[in-house]
């Protein structure tokens, strides 16, 4: 285990085995307090991450900052709200320890700061703390000599409420009349006119991300109307997870200031493009922190990259239960949609295979960078769990030299079922229940999440599926009510 003195690599944050060992030093507390006061911060939102990747907090004034950092701040009955029923009303509350390397002054209101925190229960890391799961996975990978990095491509749809209280696309200038002819429109993707129309909202986002120093590369008007993607630079796994959660907060707050709201629901309307959150993952050696292990000395894909793909393929169905965590996620994992804006092919993965720059495969080896892109992921995921299981699967693949087989460098949408079967390519889970069943049988996932976290996750997702499965939808009424 790395000690406080040895913890010099920010990509390998220390996993504290006890509550006392997790507490920051007095020097660090004083340093961060000065930074916050200089920025004008008056209120601190120290946030722990629940089972679904959603931040939770109790705001405190700056006068309580030292108490907060000493673990004497707010306590939480996490088991009362987050579907983690292993504890009862008679059990102790959870205590959070803020991570002073994960501090974000809120750009829309600099009197507030978000600090991400780790949960402890009775002196030990709480076994249903998402952030602790990722830190533990990072520790285990470091023991094997590896450090993970990731970039995530967040997609989302900006909406507003119309005068009838109905949600509509925020950037869509077609008339709302229900009568008369509605001509077929061109695809929204990359469109200059709609990009310009969206700039009042997008400029705020661009300025914020640039101010945060995340090295924003571009903003993309995506395929669905009012859908966007933000591409910013990769970083180590814990920081990327914190950034994605903070980004979701920022997007929602900025949208509110423009009279709009943001949804991360993967498929909010039939016929739309899916909103994904592709995970671009790479590994480095702990001994050579500046070398990407997925690139060999000749500038080609390395043996380690192949074995890493092999590890991901071996656990693909179970990983998908984490990276595509909702009933709605699987509405987007289909090859074609009739009446699709801009065509019929979805560009979403439906098969478990890999290919060089093949966007129809689950795992893509891009032409522009040495990383493995998992295209079966969306913004509803708990990013801490997602990155934790991704890291563990790749390390297992390299350690066991798992052969991924030949790449699939064909358009999977154009292949027949017989061709796919002959190639030995598996189908991605078709729904949440199928994915959850795979997760429940995967030993590596059980090791990464731990038995209590895994049990709680499966219990909630099984309940989510049953509630959905028992609901009579509008489609069923239209399809069957008068037919039979």
Number of beta strands: 18
- In CATH, the homologous superfamily of the largest domain goes by the name Glutamine synthetase/guanido kinase, catalytic domain
Q: Please report the first level of CATH classification, the CATH class of the largest domain.
A: Alpha Beta
> How many discrete domains?
2
Gross morphology is globular
Computed Rg? 23 Å
Q: In CATH terms, what is the architecture of the largest domain? A: 2-Layer Sandwich
> Strand pairing plus helix content: what structural class?
alpha+beta
Uncertain parts: 1-6
Q: At the third CATH level, what is the topology name of the largest domain?
A: Creatine Kinase, Chain A, domain 2
- Strand fraction equals 15-25%
Mean of the pLDDT scores?
A: 93
Distance between the termini: 66 Å
Task: Give a verbal description of the structure.
With 484 residues, the protein is α+β, with helices and mostly antiparallel strands. The protein has two domains: 109 residues, Ubiquitin-like (UB roll), CATH 3.10.20.70; 321 residues, Creatine Kinase, Chain A, domain 2 (2-Layer Sandwich), CATH 3.30.590. The chain contains 14 helices and 18 strands. The strands form two sheets. Strands 8, 9, 10, 11, 12, 13, 14, 15, 16, 17 and 18 form an eleven-stranded mixed beta sheet that branches. Strands 1, 2, 3, 4, 5, 6 and 7 form a seven-stranded mixed beta sheet that branches. Helix 7 packs across helix 9. The longest helix is centred in the middle third of the chain and has 21 residues. It starts with 18 loop residues before the first helix and ends with a helix. The N terminus is likely disordered.
């Amino acid at each position: 285990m790395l000690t406080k003195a040895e913890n010099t690599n920010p990509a390998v944050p220390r996993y504290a085995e006890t509550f006392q060992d997790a507490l920051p030093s007095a020097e660090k507390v004083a340093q961060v307090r000065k930074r916050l006061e200089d920025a004008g911060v008056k209120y601190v939102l120290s946030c722990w991450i629940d089972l679904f990747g959603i931040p939770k907090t109790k705001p405190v004034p700056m006068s309580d900052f030292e108490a907060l950092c000493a673990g004497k701040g707010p306590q939480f009955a996490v088991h009362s709200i987050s579907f983690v029923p292993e504890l009862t009303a008679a059990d102790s509350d959870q205590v959070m320890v803020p991570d002073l390397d994960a501090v974000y002054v809120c750009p829309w209101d600099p009197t507030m700061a978000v600090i991400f925190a780790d949960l402890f229960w009775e002196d030990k890391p709480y076994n249903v703390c998402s952030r602790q799961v990722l830190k533990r996975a990072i520790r285990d990978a470091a023991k094997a000599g590896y450090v993970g990095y990731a970039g995530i491509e967040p997609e989302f749809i900006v909406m507003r409420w119309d005068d009838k209280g109905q949600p509509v696309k925020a950037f869509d200038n077609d008339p709302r009349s229900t009568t008369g002819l509605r001509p077929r429109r061109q695809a929204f993707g990359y469109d200059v006119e709609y990009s310009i129309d969206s700039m009042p909202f997008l400029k705020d986002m661009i300025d914020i991300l640039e101010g945060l120093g995340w090295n924003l590369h571009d903003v993309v008007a995506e395929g669905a109307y009012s859908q966007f993607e933000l591409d910013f630079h990769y970083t180590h796994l814990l920081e990327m997870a914190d950034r994605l959660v903070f980004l979701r907060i920022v997007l929602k707050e900025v949208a509110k200031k423009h009279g709009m709201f943001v949804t991360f629901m993967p498929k909010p309307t039939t016929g739309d493009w899916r909103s994904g959150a592709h995970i671009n993952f790479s590994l480095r050696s702990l001994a050579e922190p500046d070398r990407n292990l997925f690139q060999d000395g000749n500038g080609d894909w390395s043996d380690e990259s192949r074995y890493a793909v092999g590890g991901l393929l071996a656990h693909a169905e179970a990983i998908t239960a984490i990276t595509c965590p909702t009933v709605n996620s699987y509405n987007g994992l289909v090859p074609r949609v009739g009446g699709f804006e801009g065509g019929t092919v979805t560009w979403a993965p439906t098969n478990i295979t890999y290919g060089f720059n093949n966007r129809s495969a689950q795992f893509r080896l891009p032409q522009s960078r040495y990383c493995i892109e998992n295209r079966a992921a969306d913004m509803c995921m708990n990013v801490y769990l997602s990155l934790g299981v991704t890291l563990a699967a790749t390390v297992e693949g390299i350690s066991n030299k798992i052969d991924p087989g030949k790449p699939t460098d064909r358009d999977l949408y154009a292949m027949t079922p017989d061709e796919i079967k002959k190639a030995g390519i598996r189908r991605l889970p078709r729904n949440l229940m199928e994915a959850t069943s795979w997760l429940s049988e995967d030993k590596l996932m059980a090791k990464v999440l731990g038995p209590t976290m895994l049990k709680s996750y499966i219990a909630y997702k099984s309940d989510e599926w049953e509630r959905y499965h028992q609901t009579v939808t509008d489609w069923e009424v239209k399809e069957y009510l008068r037919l039979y």
